[in-house]
Amino acid sequence: MILLAATAKIWYSIPLIVVVSLCYGATRHEVMSEIMRHSFKTAVWVLGFMGFIFAIVWLSGYFV
Amino acid sequence: MPEIVYHVPEGEPVHVNLKDQYWAALLAWLFPGAGHLFQGRTAKGLLFMICIVSTFVFGLAMGRARCVTATTGTGSLNYYFLAQGAVGALSFPAIIQSVKTSDGADPFWVLCERFPEDYANEKIRFHKIDQQKDVGPIPERTLKDGFMAPPAGPVFEHEADVLGMWHADYKHMFDLGVLYTMVAGLLNILAIYDAFCGPAILTEAQKEELEEQAKKKRRWL
Known about the structure:
The complex is a heterodimer of chains A (64) and B (221).
Chain A: H1 2-6, H2 13-26, H3 32-60
Helix pairs in contact in A: 2-3
Chain B: E1 4-6, E2 14-16, H1 21-30, H2 34-38, H3 42-62, H4 80-84, H5 92-101, E3 110-114, E4 143-146, H6 162-170, H7 172-197, H8 204-220
Antiparallel strand pairs in B: 1-2, 3-4
């Protein structure tokens, strides 16, 4: 809970990830089901990338 | 532009009629999703409209209607506006306000008034005037924050000015507002492209090539 409270600003990224994924997916497909599938993959990819960077930054704290 | 037909692996081929591309692109810029609605691509038009307009409005609300300005306090172009202006009509008030305030006049749609830079009490210069509080005499000339108007008054490099007060008052919400409105504008550029050229659907040959590349990567791993 402390970590969630300390990183409260990160929650503002969620709406951005959703709209960016949807709009990006919409420029790659015309059928709604395919747009949604592509958007979901994009959102997972972005969240995974953010998680990877978070892990690097978090681990780097142990070496300082 | 003639109708484009996309062959999808499952189901019927998809027909996309781009109608008059140039009009569609112009409409897409003027209001997010309008270009697609003009082309009869209703679902995508509504998707773009909801996503982009809500992001812009949410960002504007977070920045208390001050985070979208066409010019800076010195009258030069606000570089953020290059992205924010891509949402079209939603950003027009910023241009109107910059023109209105370019010669030092007060903006339209005043949100609040502030103590001017030459106010006797230095501690409350550029602060919001709250008549409920006992802050001394209200000056005749005040600095006014307007809806999407550039910061009023002089610009200081190392001291507080109106822009500095916006950052102090709204903290991270001001920066998030700038970010959200810029992202909305950049997303509308994607929507304009889609209205002009249609969706960038991969052809079968491109898909096969990508699969080949993925296979090579897996072998390498």
